[in-house]
Structures are given as C-alpha cells and as structure tokens.
C-alpha cells in the first residue's frame, strides 16, 4: 500500500501524483497483518483471519491556480488517506451457497480552506474513489 499513488488532478499527468497514506487503527505505524484463509476438510468450513469489513477514504483538496494562472480555481488533491477498520476473524460453513457480509465504505472530502467536510463530491473526487476502491479490491484478491 505504500507504493499506491493517486492523481492530484483526477486524470493522469506524469508529475502530479501523490501517495495514498495507509492508517491502521490497531498499530498506527505498522502494516496490518495479512489476511489469511484456511479450509478445514473435516468440518467443511472456511476460516478467514484478519479481514477488514470497513474502510474509510479521506481526501483533502484545495483550490489552486495552475498553469501560470491560466486555471485560477482548479480543485487539487493535497492528501489522500485510507483508514482501515477493525480486524475480524470469520468462519463460513462450506455448504452455504451464498454468504453475505456487511461491508462499510465511507468517503470524506475535506476542503483545506474550510474547517468542515465538503458536502458535494466533485467528478474528480468520484473518479479518485472509484479507482482507489477497485485497486484495493484487486489487492485483496
């Protein structure tokens, strides 16, 4: 996760990428333990350890003048952070056809010029969230 970057402008541009910071509640400065899965042949059950069922995305943006003032009010991503929730150990019956889990995903957009979160995410923010969520889903597989 320390090598995942997001575009500051919402579209690829070679020199405008920032890293996504990972925050893990239990050990704020360490990497979380890996997710592990075990299938028990005797009990016909699947056990999953260290699973995260909630994740929060935090994006801090500011209006900046870009391209020598030609774009006076461009919304630019300044900081991106993924906050992982509590870990869970789960066990599933192998005979179940369908397993449903309550997953929690939240996204907060903070305007650095204001003291409260933005109320309406922009197209840029929506693209960032979707790309990040897809990347995290891919990494968890």
From TrEMBL:
It comes from the Eukaryota. This is Tectonic. It comes from Drosophila madeirensis.
């Amino acid at each position: 996760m320390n090598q995942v970057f997001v575009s500051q402008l919402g579209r690829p541009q070679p020199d405008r990428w920032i890293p996504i910071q990972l925050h893990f509640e239990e050990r704020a400065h360490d990497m979380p333990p890996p997710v592990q899965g075990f299938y028990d042949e005797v009990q016909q059950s699947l056990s999953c350890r260290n699973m995260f069922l909630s994740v929060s995305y935090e994006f801090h943006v500011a209006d900046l003048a870009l391209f020598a003032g030609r774009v006076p009010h461009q919304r630019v991503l300044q900081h991106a952070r993924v906050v992982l929730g509590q870990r869970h150990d789960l066990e599933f019956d192998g005979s179940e056809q369908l397993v449903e889990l309550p997953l929690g995903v939240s996204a907060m957009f903070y305007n650095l010029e204001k003291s409260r979160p933005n109320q309406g995410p922009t197209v840029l923010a929506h693209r960032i969230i979707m790309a990040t969520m897809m990347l995290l889903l891919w990494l968890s597989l």
